[in-house]
Amino acid sequence: MLARFSLCFCSVLIAVTALAAAQEPVKPPLTPRIITATKQVTMFTGLERQMLQAVQKKDKAALEAMVTEEFAIEMPDTDQLAGEDWLDSVMAKDFSLKSFIIRQMSVTQLGDSAIVKYDRIQDSTYQGKPDGGEFFVVDVW
User: If we measure between CA atoms, which residue out of 42, 52, 50, 136 comes closest to residue 100?
Assistant: First the structure.
């Protein structure tokens, strides 16, 4: 009888151990807190906002003053777009940036340069069709 009990106990122990190992880890509860932006995040949020506002206003001179000759756009599943071509495309009458939101920005300083990463939600149209969405942006300044 003791052997039968031990066998049954071991079977239950193995089953409980297997189930416990398969569970997802317990996530800690979220605690609401205010996160203040760093000086770099504040500065680059302003610069990104200026660029996008220049796109909205079709202010090509303002955009040209903010980018270098090496400026380019890279996106998944497409060839690199030269900065001059990008400027022409966002200045065209076919494109309209109606609104945008910049959120969750982080900045990594690398000497004289900075890597800026953020989520951008935009409402835009191209040739009268919706062209907006949510984008993960990485800029090097």
Answer: 52
